[in-house]
Structure formats: structure tokens, C-alpha cells
């Protein structure tokens, strides 16, 4: 059985199947902030979706981070490092990518155990 949450006409924000939560790419609500602020917003959105699935950031299996400008790597890591739980840091990849909205500096996708 697949459970979908926050289902829209184009995509769902979250799907849960066989004890795994798959999140859509999360983007900042307020793109006027710098990379640290945008990353914090994205991580808060991830926390909220993981809670909906009945899990949390200590159970993330994998994270994929997309930066509009790889020069923002240090600032993104500042927010990331403050957010992750020591001893529970997930496997992660970070790449530079053209994001759908030029105001977005970061988009993050995670998969987590439920």
C-alpha cells in the first residue's frame, strides 16, 4: 500500500511505502533570504513532512542537495550542520543545478525510514 500526503494535481509532497518515506524536493517559502535562511526554511519543511510520516531526521536514509550556485556550499553546510543530529548524519550528495525558480538557492530531497 502507498500512502500519499499533500497530494496536488502535479505531485505529492510525501509518499510512504514499505516503511520508507519519500519526500519531494523541498524549497524555501521566502526566497528573499540568504543561503543560510533558505536552507533553514527547507530543513523546517523536511522536519514537518517527516513528522507527518511518523518519523524524524535521525532516520534519514539519504539526502540529495541541489544548489543554484556551488559557492553557497559553505553557507548551506552552516545550516545543515546545526540541524543534523550527531551520530545520525545521513549519506548525502550535493550538486550545483539550475533550479525551477531563479530566486531559490537550495532544494533538498530526502528519503527516510519510518
Number of helices: 2
User: How would a textbook summarize the main sheet?
Assistant: 6 strands, mixed
SSE topology string: EEEHEHEE
Uncertain residue ranges: none
Shape: globular
CATH architecture name: 2-Layer Sandwich
What number of structural domains do the residues give? 1
Oligomeric state of the chains? single chain
Report the average pLDDT across residues. 98
Tally of DSSP β-strands: 6
CATH superfamily annotation: RutC-like
Which CATH class? Answer: Alpha Beta
The proportion of residues forming helix, as a percent range, comes to: 25-40%
Strand proportion, as a percent range, falls in 25-35%
Structural class by secondary-structure content: alpha+beta
**According to CATH, what is the topology?**
60s Ribosomal Protein L30, Chain: A
Strands of the biggest beta sheet: in what spatial order? 1-2-3-6-4-5
Spatial extent as radius of gyration: 14 Å
End-to-end span in angstroms? 14 Å
Amino acid at each position: 500500500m502507498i500512502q500519499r500526503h499533500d497530494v496536488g494535481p502535479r505531485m505529492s509532497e510525501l509518499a510512504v511505502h514499505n516503511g520508507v518515506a519519500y519526500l519531494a524536493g523541498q524549497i524555501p517559502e521566502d526566497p528573499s533570504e540568504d543561503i543560510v535562511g533558505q536552507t533553514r526554511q527547507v530543513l523546517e519543511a523536511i522536519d514537518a513532512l517527516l513528522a507527518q510520516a511518523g518519523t524524524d531526521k535521525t532516520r534519514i536514509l539519504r539526502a540529495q542537495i541541489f544548489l543554484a550556485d556551488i559557492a553557497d556550499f559553505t553557507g548551506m553546510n552552516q545550516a545543515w550542520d546545526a540541524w543534523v543530529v550527531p551520530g545520525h548524519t545521513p549519506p548525502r550528495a550535493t550538486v550545483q543545478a539550475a533550479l525551477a525558480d531563479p530566486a531559490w538557492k537550495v532544494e533538498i530531497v530526502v528519503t527516510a525510514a519510518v
